[in-house]
Amino acid sequence: MSPIHLAGRGLACSLGLSVEQALTTLRQGGVHPAKITLPGAMAGDYPFHAIPCTKDDWNERARDLVQRVANEAGAQQIRDGVLLIATSSFDIGAVERGTTQMDYQAFADKVATWLDWVGPVHVVNTACTSSLNALLLAQALMRSGAAEEVLVLGMEIDNRLTLGGFAALQLLSRTGSKPFAVQRDGLVLGEAVAALRLSTRDAVVWDLAGGANVVDGEQPTGASVRAVNEMFMQALADSGATADAIDLIKVQAAGSPGNDAVEAQGLRETFGVVPPLVSLKAAMGHTMGASGAAELALLTACLEQEVWPAYENEADKELGVSLAQAMPQQIRRVMATILGFGGSHASVVLERA
Amino acid sequence: MTTFAIRGRCVASPPPPDWREQLAGMLGAKPRRIGNWAELGLYGALSCLADAGETSLPPDTLLTLGSRRGTYMPTAQVLEQMHDDLPMPLTFLQTQPSQLLALLAAQMRWRGSAQFIAGGTPPALLQLASAQCGAAGVLLGWVDEMDGGSSLWLRLKPCEISAGAPVVAPAESIFLRDATHLYMVGSGAKAG
Asked: Does B185 contact A at CB distance below 8 Å?
């Protein structure tokens, strides 16, 4: 079985329009989220991590971001490969503006046209875990020999439906993202477009070693401890690693009072001695279906260039876990986790090639 | 060439007039506030499992679901609600296709790998599933609300040998009622 290499990456998020821009912004202390005002019963301002790219037309803006990010990842080299679009909101922002009809296949065709894509195209939607599940699907296609080159494209672009829905469910913070912190009070959402190019041929720094997805219906809008534990164990088994071989875990830690506690309990129960932890939610917001790809694009770049996010909030000692204040040395294996709507729990393991 | 044995199926296109009563019977109560698309999906999946003689799935079974239009009706409702207010929370949840995966997992008391693939075709969905699933196989569904609704499901297990000579059907016909096996050939699927 050929190793699956992370051969290219691209990113547009609130930190910038490329991986390098995002790293530079993070080195300089990051950005403060913008404010978005919502109407009605939960009216008020909510922080939101918007991509710094302004265009009047939703589709033009999305096309610009998708092309930019895909090119950064080297997608032009693999247009006959498999394209996996990972999103929870499709092009609903354009539907809201009346410029597009809601149609999954038309959305997939539109994105493929933007990229001059000639290979198969599929759209994965498992809410927040969409990108990690697209990575797992890519892994399956490559392990089975059905594909040699895959582009995972995470897309979560400005729309009111997601923000309004999360506000209605009272899941949003009005103050800021505070992962694993004592004063955490909800999520801060964000936009991102991110691309991960996977190849069985072009080795660079990181390989996708394995992963797992566990859906549990116990909590349809949140995580369950038993599913978190199963996810960790299955991801370790699939990647051929033991718990003590994981050097760093990029946690979900979106700042949710309940989910952060569930994740922390799962970490303690599975790992015993919990590896160093990192969260990127305060830096870029929770970018929903794009988050797995966006956070991996940024995290791998951070590890290669020794950039580390700063955490300003007091850690919640009752969780029994905390985020690493500095980058650990000699990181060989990294686990990355996203927990989401639909009882979905997904984790992947990357290792240095 | 991958061959799947069809262990169970539900081909409800359109579903029978009493499908809601049948669903309530399978669930033990009338489902509440989950939306028509999710109800259709539950009806088909549970009927398919019953046809396969199963009440739940082995943990390493893949659950894969596809749709042409998915949750477009509740999404249209939410967009309407958002003209001057936030959406109703339960209506917003109905816009998320992955909620059906959670509902199915809860109903079957099952935890495992499940996904929603938006758009495409049933044969393409099967092609992806064949790369992902192991010996326990896959529960594959295709659910839409348009044109009277449809809920198409197959319970498939990989097998070594197919029984009898294949009767090749068009690749679009993976839900063919009298097929016993599916043959994955190249980039498409054929029923036999």
From this structure: no
Residue ranges making up the domain that contains B146: 8-155
Residues A226 and A86 in one domain: no
Q: Examine the pLDDT at B167 and tell me if it is beyond 50.
A: no
pLDDT at A325: 95
Q: How far is CA B82 from the centre of its chain?
A: 30
Number of H helices, E strands in chain A: 10, 13
Residue B32 covered by a domain: yes
Residues A236 and A314 in one domain: yes
pLDDT digits (tens, 9 = 90+) for A232-268: 999 999 999 999 999 999 999 999 999 999 999 999 9
Q: Which of B110, B116, B130, B184 to substitute to test the interface with A, most A CBs within 10 Å? A: B116
Question: Do the domain assignments include residue B37?
Answer: yes
Burial of A190: CB neighbours in 10 Å, binned 0-12, 13-18, 19+: buried
Domain shared by A170 and A218, yes or no: no
CATH number reported for the structural domain that contains residue A295 in this entry: 3.40.47.10
Pick from B67, B104, B115: CB nearest A126:
B115
**Percent of residues, chain B, with pLDDT higher than 70:** 89
What digits encode the pLDDT tens for the residues B19-59?
999 999 999 999 988 999 999 999 999 999 999 999 999 99
Query: What distance in Å separates the CA atoms of residue A85 and residue A93, rounded to the nearest whole number?
Result: 16
Q: Looking at residue B89, which CATH number applies to its domain?
A: 3.40.47.10
Residues A61 and A179 in one domain: yes
Question: What's the pLDDT at B169?
Answer: 47
A116 CB neighbour count, 10 Å cutoff: 11
CB spacing of B86 vs A39 below 8 angstroms: yes
Residue A43 sits in the same domain as residue A168: yes
In a domain, B160, yes or no: no
pTM: 0.97
ipTM of predicted assembly, 2 dp: 0.97
Residue A172 lies in domain: 5-199
Contact with chain A for residue B37, Cβ under 8 A = no
Query: Which residues of chain A are modeled with pLDDT < 50?
Result: none
Contact residues, B window 134-173, toward A, CB-based 8 Å cutoff:
none
pLDDT band at B178 (very low <50, low <70, confident <90, very high): confident
What does the pLDDT read at residue B171? 47
**Cβ contacts of B106 on chain A, cutoff 8 Å:** 217-218, 220, 343
Model pLDDT, residue B189: 62
Number of folded domains in chain B?
1
> Cβ contact (<8 Å) for A342 and B101?
yes
Strand ranges, E, within chain A: 4-12, 34-38, 44-49, 82-86, 121-124, 149-156, 189-190, 192-199, 206-216, 248-250, 277-278, 333-340, 344-352
A20 and A164 share one domain: yes
- The shortest CB-CB distance from A169 to any of B69, B89, B98 is to B89
Q: Which positions 41-100 of B are in contact with A (Cβ < 8 Å)?
A: 63, 67-70, 72, 75-76, 78-79, 82, 84-89, 92-93, 95-99
Q: Considering the domain boundaries, does residue B43 fall inside one?
A: yes
